[in-house]
């Protein structure tokens, strides 16, 4: 197989490209299996013993984090400490009644699964399922409908294979491995079918907390980061004092208390057979660890072990059950604060005019949130829970600290939030410094592989190695003064792709390759966010009735600081208002708007925002 075909057919082009480069450089991966594992001071070298030890470790690692029996006793002795759902706060939802599935729906679910060669313990992968979809859709539909009619999840698809994935550190220490779960392909189909019914019920009845951004349709990390940064900039623009606590949980998904989750379900209308089905989904699950020996091309399995708590990693239904589990968290904290939750990533933003009041409310909120975690069988990792005091030049710095007991929450100026490095001045310097080495590595990869593959494949490598890195969070950091360093790196990789000299102009090269320069890509990313979130913005005709040429433009919010003017919201208004009218006219058609916008940006190759503003 040629290198072009090898990369083109790969599901992970980045990994495949690096494998090829390492082969060319003679840097072959070690073909040895796991040599040893140290458990409680005892060194294991037998592969079967290592597999069993890993399985026991992964199964019991949460015993210190979550103790179901202890929590059940706490509830029995003092029921008032439990979740807001069980205390009867709020109105219970209409009952969920599962509508039967059609073969057409199940066929669509099977076709929507990612095509993978990896399989569960039954050795049937999604690729095989998709090939045979016309033959198996009827029996799988029957199984799905039988499950919802009797409230039982098929037990043969509740077995999972666990692969230990090394993270970093000493390879002999089990805590340096992350468990990767391989579920059966059939369980994914049934899980997706149940997910569709459950999420429709939750959305129709508006049961999910709006502060939760994780695992929800039309929401992403982009929305969560926007909510955080916009609230910070808005508060600083109004000369408020801003502080935020970023909570970190230890193995949150693996720590879910099944009995507590089940007890929360009726609050969301999940009763009767639907509740029984979720109970059955969680109960009597088993796992075993599988070790690979690349040298002998063999696999070795541990014994099966029962999973007593947690949600199935890699499942489709599991993440939705998790956000249901923590859905009542915002109800347990004080008013006039801004929770921002993405799955198990929880941050609380508070703005006040008085520094003492801010410190008091931050401390109280920390106590309330940590108590909720404790009552709900989730363990707070205090060493990775941080407090950040956001600053601007116009606000006098205050020495704010959060105490718990005799200790302080670690105060930091830089931290990582949903994949973006954020500092307390929102200048994005730390994030850009983090991605530059990755972009440099992408340039190295491109230089190494360029003589061996086609121009078309070089573009595919560019998008998988370079573009994905600069695109993530670009609408937040793309207007930073430090972004010029990323633009220079982008020009470097474009010159490598085209074989151009270091001083050659890249403007025509971008056009030739049909690749947007960083400033143009920034414009595109912000305007795409704007058009997908029109409800955040107000047009001039909603403010006044004057018939002017700008009547359909967005209304500029009051801006007292340059920092606020560089934020996504203000820049979104400014960029949208500067668009040609023929593009703005399509703002109600997202697909056509994006198509026209991209064509416009590719045709003009803007190297700066000023070029864009001066074009009209």
Give your account of this protein's structure.
With 616 residues, the chain is of the alpha+beta class. The protein has 25 helices and 16 strands. Strands 3, 4, 6, 7 and 8 form a five-stranded mixed beta sheet that branches. Strand 1 (37-39) and strand 2 (42-44) form a beta hairpin. Helix 7 (133-150) crosses helix 11 (272-282) and helix 19 packs antiparallel against helix 24. The longest helix has 21 residues, at 355-375. The model is unreliable at 64-82 (pLDDT under 50).
**Uncertain stretches:** 64-82
User: Over the alpha carbons, how many angstroms does the gyration radius reach?
Assistant: 27 Å
Number of helices: 25
Class inferred from helices and paired strands: alpha+beta
State the end-to-end distance: 50 Å
Q: How would you describe the shape? A: globular
Mean pLDDT over the full residue set: 88
Q: Major β-sheet, in short? A: 5 strands, mixed
As a percent range, the share of strand residues is 5-15%
What's this, in brief?
The chain is an alpha+beta fold and 616 residues long.
Which helices and strands occur, and which strands form pairs?
Blueprint: H1 3-8, H2 13-24, E1 37-39, E2 42-44, H3 47-60, H4 68-77, H5 103-112, H6 126-131, H7 133-150, E3 159-166, E4 177-182, H8 185-204, H9 221-237, E5 241-247, H10 258-264, H11 272-282, E6 285-293, E7 298-301, E8 305-307, H12 317-325, E9 338-342, E10 345-352, H13 355-375, E11 386-390, E12 403-404, E13 407-408, E14 410-411, E15 414-417, E16 420-423, H14 429-449, H15 455-471, H16 474-477, H17 483-498, H18 507-513, H19 518-532, H20 540-543, H21 562-565, H22 568-577, H23 581-584, H24 590-604, H25 609-615
Parallel strand pairs: 3-6, 11-14
Antiparallel strand pairs: 1-2, 3-4, 5-10, 5-11, 6-7, 6-8, 9-10, 12-13, 15-16
Helix pairs in contact: 5-7, 7-11, 14-15, 14-17, 15-17, 19-22, 19-24
